[in-house]
Amino acid sequence: MTQRTNGKRALVTGGAGLIGSHLSDLLLEDGYGVRILDNLEPQTHRNGKPPWIPREAEFVGADVRDRAAVRSALEDIDVVFHQAAYGGYMPEIAKYVEVNSLGTARMLETIRDEKLPVEKVVVASSQAVYREGAALCPRHGLVFPETRSTERLAAADYAVHCPEPRCGEPSAPTPTPEEAPTGGETVYAITKSDQERLVLTWGRQTGIPTVALRYSCTYGPRQSIFNPYTGVIAIFATRLLNGRPPVLYEDGEQTRDFCYVGDVARANLLAAQTDTLDGLPANVGSGRATTIREVARMVSESLEARMEPVARGEFRPGEIRHLTSDISRAREAGYEPEVDLAEGIGRYIDWIRDQGDVRDYFAEAEKVLRAKSIVHEIRYASGSADPERR
Fold it and tell me: Which residue in 96, 188, 229, 361 is the catalytic one?
């Protein structure tokens, strides 16, 4: 049984991971009793149980797909922070559905059917649920474009066009509010949408408060140096440390909202302690846009390994071009990001330098991504790939 000092016990699924581990630390500081459930996925935790799992927390080494283990982990729990997920641009389809969708459904079913006294569930959703970021059309104002087609991307047409009939004008990116249409077109996005909708719908049906936090690109210390399918800052850093340049998809001018892990952890604690966000999805990010090319430059400079990134004529179908979070809803509840990108990258680089030998796992992963059609080549007018692609 977990110990507690503020009268609350929390279960953090995926509590050994980037966000879950920082959240566990924060909960302990705030007086919660903490139980962590994590299967230590080898893709992320190649060396097994990481040293940052706090001794004060109860650790359960189990998978969210194991109903008996989940039932046991839910014993005497007041608040569930459901962080566990299979993520990134990995090639598995069934595993995404089993872990993210089915695992979440079984957990919710267990709480409901066994009438467990859980008081709130906060689920980790993602900006990936949006089909494309919000945009401003010079003729129609705020619009919500469709996902860019594979055919357009293959022709190196990266622009986001106005979706209004008979318009199609190139649009400018603008922060994306929670009201934007969802329906991402990657397997990960589909299953994160499943998780979010399952939790919020279940909450309305059962009367148990629920919140879905749509994370922006989260980064910081403890982000796996082994997983080559997720975390662009980690991927860039491991390549540069191995004397290899960062790899850019499209032209590298995609923009993202990068949010430091400590800020994301604080957003979770806030969601548990206020009723302002109950029943809602809420964006969690920095509210600022940065191009992927600029991130590569910042990581390179922080490592003092200045190396120009390479764009090799490749793209990932279903990838969003521009996505910055409108964090107004979270701000109204009391959330405010504290760590800017330059400082956060510096903290991550300080951490990664203490990890000993760091291999570049991305090079081999690229071959898998191409073989599974997760990465495509851009085709030019001649119908062939760019002859300068390396």
Answer: 188
